From TrEMBL:
The lineage of its organism: Bacteria, Pseudomonadati, Pseudomonadota, Alphaproteobacteria, Sphingomonadales. SUPFAM superfamilies: P-loop containing nucleoside triphosphate hydrolases, TrpR-like. Plays an essential role in the initiation and regulation of chromosomal replication. ATP-DnaA binds to the origin of replication (oriC) to initiate formation of the DNA replication initiation complex once per cell cycle. Binds the DnaA box (a 9 base pair repeat at the origin) and separates the double-stranded (ds)DNA. Forms a right-handed helical filament on oriC DNA; dsDNA binds to the exterior of the filament while single-stranded (ss)DNA is stabiized in the filament's interior. This is Chromosomal replication initiator protein DnaA. GO terms for cellular component: cytoplasm; plasma membrane. It comes from Alteripontixanthobacter maritimus.
Amino acid sequence: MEDIEAVNLAADWSDISQGLRKDLGHQLHSQWIKPIQVGGFCKDTGTLDLFLPTDFSANWVQDRFADRLSLAWKIARSEVRNVRIAVHPGRRKLPELQLGGRQAANDGGGGMAGGAAAGGDTGYTHGLSGPVGLDPSLTFAAFVTGEANVLACNAAQRMAANETPQFSPLYLKGATGQGKTHLMHAIGHAYLAHHPRARIFYCSAERFMVQFVQALKSGQTMEFKARLRSFDLLLVDDLQFIIGKASAQEELLYTIDALLAEGKRLVFAADRAPQALDGVEPRLLSRLSMGLVADIQPADIELRRSILEARLTRFAPLAVPADVIDFLARTVTRNVRELIGGLNKLIAYAQLTGQEVSLALAEDQLTDILSANRRRITIDEIQRTVCQFYRIDRSEMSSKRRARAVVRPRQVAMYLAKKLTPRSYPEIGRKFGGRDHSTVIHAVRLIEDLRTRDADMDGDVRSLLRQLES
């Protein structure tokens, strides 16, 4: 009965969490709601326990989200009368950091990692507690590179190397889910491997502001500044959320100056270039731009396919057909996070239901992800792109000419129309000068066959697919 109750509570929490994600947005939900673990429920008192990993996060959620969580649970379960938010009783206490003679409890979630504390050797080390705040799975070895991200990856490796980097700070710019956070964690791990007693601070810009405001309220700004400037490597993620916060911007500016003067390393990440950060102070903008701004472009189809194949090694010996991998790589294009999430969901469903992974299963179970990613590609767009690629006039798509120089591009366009649009063979034929559906079928089968035998043809089609799906 206890197992059934736990499963039911978990199911209810999944629904509540998804609702809060829509209300609060991805950033707040990921930082404060996602870490919550559902504890036990006492039927006698109607009290449900919700656990968080740290005192700081528990207090923060209690102050800002307690009423909302309580209401959501009461709606989901009428027998819930009270929601109690606390630190998970099984968490491991970490040693405290000495800050200028005063002790400040480390809550773990702040992203600090590494060696001796500012006040002596009482701080925790990499060997003692591991790199706190760094995800152990996000390493350079697990990062798949391609044309879209190779510059950023190489720059990140230089930043983590033994040698003094040629540039600092490193600014990683890329859209959501393209690998910025992965590279930041990888830098932290690699730097600790070279400098086991190094002190690292990893946090989001929002978390930086929260800690700064708390220091102001508690009259501990000097301790905050001393701790922040004692780190060897500073990693600040989602910098776009610090815009417009004058006091936090000023403190970050002074911190950057102090760390750079001492030869320390700094890495920032945001979803836009420094110049596109609205409301940022010009002096801070100049500091962010003075090192290297490494752009991470959206993953192309080849990189998406490589990422999926690398991910599959975790599920060996489970077999995932090549057509499923190709389908996901072509369809889930918005970001890498959704791509991996789609693969994980598909494999989990197959394992839990005992079904084999197949293209039909992928199309059936990933409708939400696929609909969000699917960009409607029209036959007109395909014809225009193919004509530009082969340098022929657009009118040749509908003409009766049989010269090889126009027939083959026309067949390629028919093939792509069938592959990338939901149109039927007769509908495609009508868009190509009123041709019969059998002509379209012949073209599709011919190009499919040529791709297996002719490397040049396969390269042409791959290039066209990249253009149309980008």
